Amino acid sequence: MSDTPDSAVPTVRAYVEQHRAAFLDDLAEWLRIPSVSAQPVHAPDVRRSAEWLAMKLKETGFPVAEVWETPGAPAVFAEWPSGDEDAPTVLVYGHHDVQPAAREDGWDTDPFEPVIRENRLHARGAADDKGQVFFHTLGVRAHLALTGRTAPAVNLKLLVEGEEESGSPHFRALVEEHRARLAADVVIVSDTGMWSETTPTVCTGMRGLADCEIDLYGPDQDIHSGSFGGAVPNPATVAARLVAALHDEDERVTIPGFYDNIAELTDAERELIAELPFDEASWLATAASHGTLGEAGYSTLERVWARPTAEVNGIGGGYQGPGGKTIIPSSAHLKLSFRLVAGQDPDKIEAAVRDWVAARVPAGIRHEITFGAATRPCLTPLDHPALKAVVRSMSRAFDGAKIRFTREGGSGPAADLQDVLAAPVLFLGISVPSDGWHSPNEKVELDLLLKGVETTAHLWGDLSAVLR
Amino acid sequence: MSDTPDSAVPTVRAYVEQHRAAFLDDLAEWLRIPSVSAQPVHAPDVRRSAEWLAMKLKETGFPVAEVWETPGAPAVFAEWPSGDEDAPTVLVYGHHDVQPAAREDGWDTDPFEPVIRENRLHARGAADDKGQVFFHTLGVRAHLALTGRTAPAVNLKLLVEGEEESGSPHFRALVEEHRARLAADVVIVSDTGMWSETTPTVCTGMRGLADCEIDLYGPDQDIHSGSFGGAVPNPATVAARLVAALHDEDERVTIPGFYDNIAELTDAERELIAELPFDEASWLATAASHGTLGEAGYSTLERVWARPTAEVNGIGGGYQGPGGKTIIPSSAHLKLSFRLVAGQDPDKIEAAVRDWVAARVPAGIRHEITFGAATRPCLTPLDHPALKAVVRSMSRAFDGAKIRFTREGGSGPAADLQDVLAAPVLFLGISVPSDGWHSPNEKVELDLLLKGVETTAHLWGDLSAVLR
Question: Are residues A133 and A237 in the same domain?
């Protein structure tokens, strides 16, 4: 378990250098396909992107590479069995669809005509997520070159969906449908990033999500606030009181049972987070916010990575036009979302929210609550052998650098893989915050992209050893 | 001061009966003019209504009857000096514009073709407010007939505005412009109603109104609730917390100083309110509400008539469309209004609200507060001699019935007259809740309309005596 390069490192690096040009040419070809899942006009491009990837994976050596249909955009599945009888199985997740992009949004060049400037590859999807899917193709070839094998040391599977940028509406059903073929000992998600170019990190978890709409109905129509004000319950007031009651003075969520069984941060985890070179001013700039506010006793990073939240995403009721209108509104509406951390069960949270709301709505107000589909949180224990293997492999690729740990505050389809396949989820991403996901001039750092290749070249052998 | 009819009653009643047919014909002619101030297409009709009224007031005997221009719809001013050197001056207020009305809204007959059914005159404006303005024309003639005078016992002035149904946007300026000509010892507002056909009442006050919009600004744009949720202030949460903090658990307004100097209900006033035949179920039906809620320690009528309130008329922030959107909104907006009672100063309330909000908005949220023009509360002391005169006159018209007291929870231009003219405001209205103000099939009860005539026939002489 070394932090220093070993003899494998120069071997891998030489192989990668030798195939760098062809690899980048192929990636550029893929990036030219505008696979924008959100825009119906690009539906044929999303399909073309899937077909291109399946073809390229076959060319890479995957004996199986299929386009999987969904009610929406197609996904790609590929499989390369190890051949070793007791080899563990690894499923890599990514997506081949991209965010919308147009030159006039502020791009310096055509978003679908990749260009390399200052060792950066600029194109929509360069980092999110085509670049990070594609490093696995050269990665597995480098792994074979390093080990002299004809098949990977693990049963390697890839699932590359085509609707991630549209909220993965059919992803869970797809995973459930193909549960048997997707079965894996560990899932590696390549759709996240690192702290920065100079601070390589591994993400160890994402928060879950439960969200609901609460509709509150008072008078049968808007009524005169002079004639009736002060004597009947106002649904907008009730909505506001629910939101206000969500938190106590320490900004802790007050719903009974909300914090039950959650995985509290250990001292070691808090120390690891505190070691990161966090700068509040630049974080606030990224957040476009003008102040911090959150649960007492936790730092900003702890709050967004490791603590559950209750947020109001939308509130509305009564008159919202210009000027005043002296009414008591007939209804008010709330959109609430709860970010969840390991240990929280979305079903229990939903039940707790329903009870809590029902107990707080006064007589004379009728309410309805509608929950959306929940996403579970996922968290990799820091002592998980597979995580240690990822860290070792990454450290080799990064010239012995210390690999630190981050988390994601958001929620994603990784949780569906964790749930349906009952497999731990790990994250391997080499993107950095400056890559501009969803923004004009998205890019990927070529040095980091190739370190992704190197990492996987080391990883499959190491994982094969620790997961047996 | 008698509750029983005296010899004047049969005299007045005979006079009214004699002129009833011509009076109703004239009123019907006025009601045929669709003076809808809210609809630009009816602007010529509103002007025609003013000109018709001025003509009719001259015909009635008023030496002065003028159409007064405003930047919007014209008002009518009329004056009939008493001739007695020390006669007090009374200004009657009403309005000649009406709410929109169309047959297809549910009217049984054309809203601008008056029809009498079962002793009720149906037409838009029959009760609100043409009928209640017009009873003053026959009323002053009956007063002259009763007293044998050639001019009223008071200097009688009428101000009949043309924009009440559009919020009286130019009324205060009009009153200020003509302050000298409008000067009066007492103002009589004929634009309210009574408790019911069987419970004649006098309104003794209206609540005031202060309203504001509060804009709260957080992140520069909507931001991702996963990436940033739990760590930055959410303006929608801040808006909700302001609304929730407006009241304590007794539904009392918490803003410091809010209740300072208010005219508390006396035991006698509370008893008078409690004597009214209040039925909560029918009140709730009128309110279209499904429950009562208000300041602890007060009845529903006390809450809407005599207690100040803070209500949210509108709230909005973040995503309000279908489904969910996991954002922290960049802004949120509140419309608050405060109903005020006697003793409260709108300027002090505004200052108190501004201080209270500023102290509650957290770092990282910017806020702006905009107040509209305030309306002061008005309240007639129960022992005011002019109020006693109104009660006596009304009791005569109502065959010796006990006259009880109500208030109005709403706010109106009466307060502008009180403020600008520094005169007490009294209310004389004979409309009842079933008259359907602003609704289809608006009507006025002919028996009550003529009791309005009778009341004023008695009133001017009595007022002249008590106000000298």
Answer: no
Whether B115 is covered by a domain: the verdict is yes
Residues B239 and B216 in one domain: yes
Mark yes or no for CB contact B311/A317 under 8 Å: no
pLDDT digits (tens, 9 = 90+) for B384-438: 999 999 999 999 999 999 999 999 999 888 899 999 999 999 999 999 999 999 8
Same domain, A175 and A39: yes
Interchain contact, B237 vs A410, CB within 8 Å: no
Contact predicate B244/A244, CB 8 Å: yes
User: A288 vs B335: CB contact, 8 Å cut-off?
Assistant: no
Residue A96 counted as domain residue: yes
The number of domains in chain B is 2
Decide if A307 and B230 are in contact by the 8 Å CB cutoff: yes
**Which of A233, A328, A410 faces B291 most closely, judged by CB atoms?**
A233
Largest alpha-carbon pair distance within chain B?
A: 86
B218 and B331 Cβ atoms separated by less than 8 Å: yes
Instruction: Please report the residues numbered 264 through 323 in chain B whose beta carbons come closer than 8 angstroms to any beta carbon of chain A.
Output: 284, 287-295, 300, 303-304, 307-309, 311-320, 323
Task: Show residues of chain B in contact with A287, CB under 8 Å.
Answer: 219, 223, 227-228, 231-232
Contact A441, A108 (CB under 8 A): yes
Query: What is the complex's ipTM, to 2 decimals?
Result: 0.91
Residue A369 touches chain B, beta carbons under 8 Å: no
Distance CA B404, CA B425 (A): 17
Tell me, what's the pLDDT at B167? 86
Chain B's closest residue to A374, CA to CA, is: B324
Q: What is the CATH number of the domain that holds B365?
A: 3.30.70.360
B344 CB neighbours in chain A (<8 A) are none
A104 and A225 within one domain? no
pLDDT band at A3 (very low <50, low <70, confident <90, very high): very low
- E-state strands within A177-270: 186-189, 201-206, 208-217, 223-224
Q: Is the CB of B319 less than 8 angstroms away from the CB of A318?
A: no
- Domain range for A235: 210-262+308-371
Q: Point out the domain boundary residue: A371, A395, A426.
A: A371
Do A351 and A412 lie in one domain? The reply is no
Q: Does A434 have pLDDT greater than 70?
A: yes
Banded model confidence at residue A424, pLDDT cuts 50, 70, 90: very high
Q: Judging by beta carbons within 10 Å of its beta carbon (0-12, 13-18, 19+), is residue B343 exposed, middle or buried?
A: middle
Nearest CA in chain B to A318: B314
Q: Which range has the worst mean pLDDT, A229-243, B248-262, B349-363, B429-443?
A: B429-443
CA distance A310 to B448: 58
DSSP state of A431: B
B91-102 pLDDT tens trace = 999 999 999 999
B176 domain residue, yes or no: yes
> Are A35 and A179 within one domain?
yes
Flag whether pLDDT at B274 surpasses 70. Answer: yes
Confidence of residue A4 (pLDDT cuts 50, 70, 90): very low
Partners of A213 in beta bridges:
A335, A370
Are B435 and B351 found together in one domain? no
Whether residue B282 is contained in a domain is answered as no
What is the domain-level CATH number for residue A34?
3.40.630.10
Nearest residue, CB atoms, B313 vs list A241, A290, A326: A326
Mean pLDDT for the stretch of residues B17-42:
97
Alpha-carbon B214 to chain mean position: 27
Asked if the Cβ–Cβ distance from A290 to B219 is below 8 Å, we say: yes
pLDDT at A308: 97
The predicted pLDDT at position B324 comes to: 84
Contacts across the A-B interface (CB distance below 8 Å):
299
Per residue in B419-429, is it b (16+ CB within 10 Å) or e — as a string?
Answer: bbbebbbbbbb
Contact B315 A372 (CB under 8 A): no
Domain final residue pick, A337, A355, A371? A371
Q: Do A336 and A409 belong together in one domain?
A: no
In the numeric block, which tokens belong to residue A38?
A: 């959100």
CA distance A355 to chain B (A): 20
Q: Is B92 on the interface with A (CB under 8 A)?
A: no
CB contact under 8 A, A409 and B230: yes
For B424-433, what is each residue's pLDDT tens digit?
999 999 999 9
> What number is the average pLDDT over the span A320-337?
93
β-bridge pairing A186-189 and A89-95: parallel
